[in-house]
Amino acid sequence: MKALFNFSVAILLLANVSWSQTIQVSHKKQYDEIGLFDMYHNGWAMVKKGKHLGFINYEGKEVVPTIYDEIELFDMYHSSWAMVKKGKNVGFIDYRGKEVIPLEYRNADDAIKWYNNPKNK
After folding, report:
1. CA–CA distance from 34 to each of 1, 28, 56, 90 (Å)?
2. In the chain, how many domains are there?
3. Among residues 53, 6, 51, 14, which one has the least CA distance to residue 36?
4. What is the pLDDT of residues 22-76, one digit of tens each?
């Protein structure tokens, strides 16, 4: 049973690498780097253009623009959000790729405090 599980995981990883390579070939002029799909969010791959990061979907459509200096993993600070950083400011994006907290804060805690303030809803 364990061997079957390991084999299944290996097949899934190879399929992901193959899919990623196909996207990389078709978009290699558009992006400097294209990561593996599903590492950050289901159906998305992180892309890098110059020094900036964003995400594309399986079709190669940019779902998060390549404007961020850093993008953390989703769900680390808040369910279904990822912290993004540009310069010295941080904000958050959601699973739709939309900024839910603008890039106006120096750290994640201040950004989440702003969001949790009833005046900002």
Report:
1. 34, 8, 9, 23
2. 1
3. 14
4. 554 455 569 999 999 999 999 999 999 999 999 999 999 999 999 999 999 999 9
The chain-wide mean pLDDT, for the chain, equals: 83
Host H or E run for residue 75 = none
In eight-state DSSP terms, residue 66 is E
- Closest to 91 measured CA to CA, from 74, 75, 65, 112: 112
Q: Read off the pTM.
A: 0.75
pLDDT at 4: 43
**Which residues contact residue 84 at a Cβ distance below 8 angstroms, ignoring those fewer than 6 apart?**
68, 70, 71, 72, 90, 91, 92, 93, 99, 103
Residue 29 lies in domain:
2-120
